[in-house]
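The following record pairs a protein chain with its ligand, MGD.
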Amino acid sequence: MSKDDLAGVSDYEGAAAGWGALKAVADAVRGQKAIVKETRGLLTMNQPHGFDCPGCAWPDPKHTSSFEFCENGAKAVSWEATAKRTTPEFFAAHPVSELLTWPDFDLENEGRLTHPMAYDQTTDRYLPISWDEALKRIGTALRALPNPDMAEFYTSGRASNEAAFLYQLFAREFGTNNFPDCSNMCHEATSVGLPESIGVGKGTVTLEDFDHCDAVFCIGHNPGTNHPRMLTTLREVSKRGAPIVVFNPLRERGLERFTSPQHPVEMLTLSSTPIASTYYLVKVGGDIAVLKGMMKTLVALDAKSLSEGGPGVLDREFIARHTTGFKDLLADLHATSWDAIEKASGLSRSDIEFAGNIYAKAERVIISYGMGITQHRHGTGNVQQIANLLMLRGNIGRQGAGISPLRGHSNVQGDRTVGITEVPNDALLDGLARVFGFEPPRRKGHNAIEAIEAIRDGRSKALVCLGGNLAVAMADQEVTFKAMRNLDLAVHIATKLNRTHLLLAKQSFILPCLGRTEIDTQATGPQSITVEDSMSMVHASRGGLKPASEHLKSEPAIIAAMALATLPNTRVGWAELVGDYGKIRDCIEAVFPEFAEFNARIQKPGGFRLYVAASEREWLTPTKKANFLVCPRIDEDPRVADRDVLTLATIRSHDQYNTTIYGLNDRYRGITGRRDVVFVNERDLASRGLKHGDLVDIAVVPGSKPGERVMRKLTAVAFHIAQGSVAAYYPEANVLVALDHHDVKSGTPSYKSIPVLLRASRG
Ligand SMILES: Nc1nc2c(c(=O)[nH]1)N[C@H]1C(S)=C(S)[C@@H](COP(=O)(O)OP(=O)(O)OC[C@H]3O[C@@H](n4cnc5c(=O)[nH]c(N)nc54)[C@H](O)[C@@H]3O)O[C@H]1N2
Ligand SMILES: Nc1nc2c(c(=O)[nH]1)N[C@H]1C(S)=C(S)[C@@H](COP(=O)(O)OP(=O)(O)OC[C@H]3O[C@@H](n4cnc5c(=O)[nH]c(N)nc54)[C@H](O)[C@@H]3O)O[C@H]1N2
Ligand SMILES: [Mo]
């Protein structure tokens, strides 16, 4: 080990947030030269008449009287409100072959895109092009496809309801349901799993429920980094003395201690509030086992209570009146041994029983979860076991209780609600036919993995991206990058340059758009857009900053123009809709009854909550009941039984937003200035003859396909991580994820459970 190998690796001693967060914001803002704009921008963020933070989808408190400080929200805003520009001069100076050698950070760090650009093969450069010419060429190329299902329409979850609605309208009038979206890589296990369990694919709680709950279980998410405003809520829960129980393979600082920037006394006295009352380092992929163990505990406690003449701990009335499948669940729990549970979870029976007792004692429980639950081979099974556990004590559909999937992008949930889905139901399609007078396609479309497979195999030839960085976010970069170059047409509606834009099709276009922080002026004046947060609250957002360039168009305007250029006989009044986004909302309301009085209801600060049937104990399942669903497996992957095999989870650093890398620090994990590390348990290092700071290679245990997937020369960092588990950063580690390594039911890539071997690097 050379001394340098451990440069930038240390222990982080502080609590989450606090002064370190303020400094990080100042650095981020300075780095983007956004100082003047930033203060104005930040002050209107998440305010009743300001713009919605483009960071996470955590809801806003109802009575926001002062700016709710969030380090990572501030970074997201300064990244968009940057004074830096990626101009035609920049593209003239750098051929694409050169840009491909740049790190992802450097590409986006050039700043906001300013002009529509088209790739030119002769010069190997993106050259400026007029909007009209670009749209004409795009329309011609789309019309030239032998059939509409050869086009893929990707959406990243930052798009507003208005943009997303127009986008699905355009693609469906064009003739396809191919809507790969970032949700396919994120909460698809929720979207597929929860409707089977409780009849809705969304969370059932509201922010107020956190004021009434008696315990919160946080499973597989890292709010200190990814939903920082949630810490304010958890802090209140903790102050009330309600237990917060965490299951996470890594010891995440934000879940341990939090210094609230909203509370000057904590800041000045350098004190902090403990968050988790109990923290379990579950093995990666061990959650089904834990959840089954907790359910076994409940059943045992129930029997004991009944035998002593007590009332039992299961909610018998709820189970009898509202559910099916209870007997099958009991049989499965009975057949699952504690031995198997301990092995798969890495936790002892007594630990799990302790957690089960906390759950049983709490009158009202909320379980929140994130990617640590969904991105597995059995992600859907994971989600459904959480629903089972809640249902056993009637913890769904009453105050202070429920399920709380933490969505990723700030409007990923809304995009789904307004029609971005490859499996549209009849209500949606009938609604479109009724309102617009064309017959939308009824065939199932492609999800994200299917889209890549279709492009790889030449079955799809055009890709339109409404934001995002599909190729880098997707599994299997080897396959995905190559596939991109198979396309005839690639269209990227984007704010910043990224690698996906550089994987060239025969014709490639970059169409620069307004961001959420910017003033969006259309024929009838400045427009608001709407978004839906993780708790089904829909509210308006209005940007206040001057657009980054006079050549930018809004996403709705770009989509409408593309539709007009592609569909000569369109039935939709695109120009009218774009002139007044209120009219887009009228159309949304006409298609989706739950948006009744849409325009009126967003006038109210904070907006309105969409009806969530399961929150009212109305079960929109085929059985009209909530269903206990058995997941036969308790381990992720049989290969992990091999003692040499570790399970790798890919995780986000504190300085990134998905594929956008803001900087190279991961403050709460003690990493500074680098990302080339792998977090390993000390004992797993020792048993391999390795130590803290050694250079190691990670190789995927061979699956069905020949060839080795390997990441070389990472520095091993001994970390508080469950034995048998390792973690490395996303997106770099996506080279390790095979395209067919995904949740068997929902297709969510198993980014969080990759069977790997760890060995010393050679040479
Ligand atoms: N600042 C910032 N905010 C973001 C994002 C961002 O990149 N940066 N991304 C947004 C998006 S799109 C999303 S989806 C969310 C993501 O938010 P999270 O769901 O918090 O996402 P991850 O960072 O992937 O981390 C998941 C956590 O799961 C844990 N974990 C890994 N494997 C397992 C497991 O098998 N079991 C359990 N119990 N835990 C496990 C990891 O240790 C980690 O703490 O955040 C959103 N908000
Ligand atoms: N290994 C691994 N892979 C993962 C994950 C993981 O945990 N591990 N997580 C997965 C998850 S949860 C998700 S959600 C996906 C994310 O996948 P994506 O949503 O595709 O990726 P992002 O990195 O969020 O997209 C960033 C790009 O969006 C564009 N952009 C930013 N703001 C705007 C805007 O306002 N409008 C438009 N049009 N464009 C904009 C910019 O050009 C920027 O480069 O990645 C997935 N991939
Ligand atoms: Mo996500």
